[in-house]
Amino acid sequence: MTYKLIAIAALLGGATAANAGGIDRSGQSITALFENGRYAEFSLGAVSPDTSGVSTVFSGLAGQNSGNMTDNFFTFSAAYKADINDQLSYAIIYDQPFGADVEYDPNPFYFAGGAKAEFNSHAITGLLRYKLPSNVSFHVGIRVQTIEATATLPRSPGVFYDVKGDRDVGAGYVLGVAYEKPEIALRVSLTYSSKIKYDVDTVERVGGAVVLTAPTHIETPQSVNLEFQTGIMADTLLFGGVRWTDWSSFTIAPPAYSSPPPGGSGGPLLSYADDVFSYTLGVGRRLSDTWAVSASVGYEKSNGGFASNLGPTDGNKSMALAAVYSRDKMKITTGIRYINIGDAQTTLNGTNAAANFKDNEAVAIGIKVGFNF
Predict the structure, then answer these.
(1) What span, in angstroms and rounded, lies between the C-alpha atoms of 47 and 69?
(2) Are 345 and 59 in contact (CB under 8 A)?
(3) How many CB atoms lie within 10 A of CB 85?
(4) 248 vs 120, 245, 277, 303, 368, CA distance in Å?
(5) 46 DSSP β-pair partners
(6) Pseudo-torsion of CA 26, 28, 34, 38, nearest 10°?
(7) Is the dihedral of CA 351, 356, 358, 362 positive or negative?
(8) Most buried residue, 5, 180, 223, 369, by CB count within 10 Å?
(9) Backbone phi, then psi, for 236, in 5-degree steps?
């Protein structure tokens, strides 16, 4: 079994990683750290979600359609890995770990008509890996991350609440351990990423008039990634992973918006009641010295309860197909993923359903180009 070629299949899922729980987009994989020698890669993904709901009697006018309230978006990531000596290696990884692009149609009869929100993040992670003679290795690193966010919500007919959070920079850490057995293409890695804290300078407006300028405290969530791969027969690889993300501790609550009524809503702008577990399982197969293919499935459990009007989804199921072309020191991975987005209900008061979101989906395509040199 050729470890270098068969291990290529484990990268196939990452080319189309998107639409996970909360506002998770990249999955924060560190796969590049385990590449042989000096290596660089670049990935680009495009995601087209279709998410719409229908209002209930409680929201005022039953049967009003929200329209597709999720915009298409692109993701980009890059990584560079190199060896220092036989025991030490390092990697520098850029990704966009968290994001949201929401915009409701300006339907005056739908309670959230004209609402929109955007959340952007960029992260650079530096990792150092130390290999022991026993096939065990440890990795540690620092992640520097920026976030910025804006939102517009209807407050009353013709009057909107607007909030803008300036870009802020925070830092966290990464810790992990891995075990490898190259002769059977086995690798298991466990990686913890810490939460990152911010005090975002925020301006809140109602009807265009500034009502408050003050910091908003935000913490992007801590997470744990368990990733594995193993050869199961000649030229065939089983791979997968589990990701836990602490979304129940994530909250965006601008001070004026979250203040008690009648001045505020009495609750956060965005929050999640439950943590999220994401599961992936797939099989990769080397067809020749230049081609490999894979198929994988993904799953996130539906937690029930109400979802946010800025993120009306609850769990998902997905299927992905991908192929790798490799020649000399270059390999090109392409993939497509279909995501069945879980049904959800949103609320305005925490007790009654305001809208039902059903039969939603997304399609993601991606390409990754890697070089050994």
Answers:
(1) 14
(2) no
(3) 7
(4) 20, 9, 12, 12, 32
(5) 74, 365
(6) 70
(7) negative
(8) 223
(9) -130, 135
CA atoms of 72 and 362, how far apart (whole Å)? 9
Our measurement of the distance from residue 32's CA atom to the centroid of its chain's CA atoms, rounded to an integer in Å, reads: 18
Strand partners, 270: 252
Torsion of CA 129, 131, 132, 137, to 10 degrees: 60
CATH 2.40.160.60 fits 3-372, yes or no: yes
pLDDT of residue 303: 84
pLDDT at 20: 58
Burial class (CB in 10 A: 0-12, 13-18, 19+), 362: buried
Placement of tokens 């005022």 in the chain: 60
Residue 229 region by backbone torsions, left for phi larger than 0, else alpha for psi between -120 and 50, else beta: beta
Block mean pLDDT (10 aa), the chain, length 373: 44 48 88 95 93 91 92 94 97 96 92 94 98 96 98 92 97 98 94 98 96 97 96 92 94 95 88 91 93 94 87 92 93 94 90 93 94 93
Q: In the structure encoding, which two tokens stand for residue 314, read together?
A: 């609850």
End-to-end CA distance of the chain: 23
Assessment of whether the complete model's pTM goes beyond 0.90: yes
3-state secondary structure of 115: coil
Residue 114 contacts residue 160 (beta carbons within 8 Å) = yes
The position carrying tokens 């065990």 is 136
Domain boundaries, the chain: 3-372
Which helix H or strand E contains 360, and what residues bound it? strand 360-372
Q: Which pLDDT value is given to residue 19?
A: 52
84: tokens are 């220092």
Asked if residues 248 and 204 have their Cβ atoms less than 8 Å apart, the reply is no
Strand, coil or helix: what is 123? strand
